[in-house]
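Q&A log
Question type: sequence-to-structure
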Amino acid sequence: MLIECFINFLRYEKRASEHTLSAYQTDLVQLSYFLEQLFRTSCTDTVEWWAKVEHFHIRQWILSLSQLQLKSRTINRKITAIQQFFTYLVEKKFIKSSPADKIFSLKEDKKLPDFVKIQETEQWQSKIPQQTNSFVEIRNTLIIELLYGTGMRRAELIKLQLEDINLNAQFIKVLGKRNKQRLIPLHSDLCKLIEQYLAIRPFTEHRTLIVTEKGESAYPMLINRVVKRMLSHTSAERKSPHTLRHSFATHLLENGASLRAIQDLLGHSSLQATQVYTHVSVERLKEVHRKAHPKSKNQD
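Response status: OK
Response body:
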């Protein structure tokens, strides 16, 4: 009962994404299973049941997750879900205090965003069919070019509607996290590609831009497959839609765009999330220095 109430609170009042809702519900169900074994009683998902939870119970759960060799980032996401759940119970006066208040996030190894090198984007673009009437080939090309040309997220691409595109003004309207809208410019070649795609797009009642051959709305695995195939010959470790988003931001920064502009284009709520790309550029400079400077070359 309470888990469902919390999820509905996130959905209707916090406007959380379906991805977040699904992840948080899974985390809470996993915790309840763990507590069932600890308390030796079935989870009733009532105020009385959750009121029995102490901070050391949650710590035991976190330890069990670490023993499963889950990444710190994954565990921290679960901790956030639990903290928000108990905060919700306190705010609704179901319990007096949150047992998760004494729980702290695990230290994460800072990993730089994976991205495709600029010269590699030129290689993949040379493999894109230039003269074709194949719907699948044109659609797949558009998927890649939209992700790389706008930096939008996979979920944003899937939700993109026909009316969100303004080819005359050369921009698209993107609906991001928490239903925040932002405008992203389109370059002329991308506008031409969209026109080419729309000319052969199957007639369908669905208003989403990207559709299947049968006219159904695109789905996550379709986007993943297209991106993985196109990035298969690049040096990027992760060949995912988010890699193209990282590439978009990194290449903008390397070509002189300001962090504030990149923040707006990516739809980040804070500049801190965008600042990671400065580290990417620093690492790139180090690599250039190592390869080009005589002293560095002698140390290889």
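Response note: The two ends are 62 Å apart (CA to CA).
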